[in-house]
Design brief:
234 residues, mainly alpha, Glycosyltransferase, two-stranded antiparallel sheet, 51% helix, globular
């Protein structure tokens, strides 16, 4: 790693050290006020985890940062497991103390926060299947349950979330179901092979921003995992 790149990473991590514990608008940039979103905390953990692994892999001189980053990584992990998991709901929920589900938490095993085999992850996947899957595709959340969106109207299914579910199924050994869902999602592409961010299963049309890079990144990641081209972090 070059000196400017290393300096930039240290500066970014320094900022995160001071701000990871604060509430925010979450991955979906909701309009209902800042909360302690479970996904946001998990992604802060991912940042520290990758910084630590980068130091380990490249041998960067980071003695002054390394132990501190390890401590913060462990602190975030413990907090998310304690405050982000709802024992009554038997699932990780959208924000600390909430009962609302959020499909962004399907990325937990994808990012390596917990393995897919962890009971809490399995429970979360099953809860999302029960409550966020109209017509076999995945909603990101139900606005009427979480009260954080601030927007009127009906949500379509959010396409990246369905790709994440296929990835989780694959990691859980449900490979046939994963491939079937992946192929169904491919069938939603237009004649140029492009996807929007959402899909309306009732009217069978794409919704929202188009084309949506988020959907295509999830498609590529899912394709690579299902074809065993990559091994995800553990």
């Amino acid at each position: 790693m070059t000196d400017p790149n290393w300096a930039l990473m240290v500066a970014l991590m320094k900022f995160l050290e001071s701000h990871w514990h604060e509430p925010d608008e979450g991955i979906w940039e909701v309009r209902g006020g800042r909360k302690h979103f479970t996904h946001s905390k998990m992604m802060a953990w991912v940042a520290f985890d990758r910084a630590i692994k980068l130091v380990e892999d490249c041998g960067c001189a980071a003695a002054e940062h390394f132990a501190r980053w390890q401590k913060i990584r462990a602190q975030i992990h413990a907090e998310v497991c304690e405050r982000g998991y709802n024992t009554k709901k038997k699932a990780f929920t959208q924000s600390y103390g909430s009962d609302a589900l959020d499909a962004s938490l399907l990325t937990m095993p994808i990012g390596g926060f917990l393995p897919a085999s962890d009971e809490r992850v399995r429970n979360t996947v099953e809860a999302i299947e029960r409550e966020l899957m109209p017509d076999g595709l995945v909603l990101r959340y139900r606005p009427e349950q979480c009260g954080v969106d601030g927007l009127p109207g009906r949500e379509g299914v959010f396409l990246p979330c369905s790709f994440w579910l296929a990835m989780c199924w694959h990691m859980l050994g449900r490979k046939k179901e994963a491939r079937e869902l992946f192929e169904r999602l491919l069938g939603l592409c237009n004649d140029l092979g492009l996807l929007s961010e959402e899909y309306d299963p009732c009217n069978k049309r794409q919704l929202g921003n188009f084309p949506q890079a988020f959907s295509h990144v999830a498609l590529i990641a899912c394709a690579r995992l299902l074809s065993d081209e990559i091994t995800l972090p553990r």
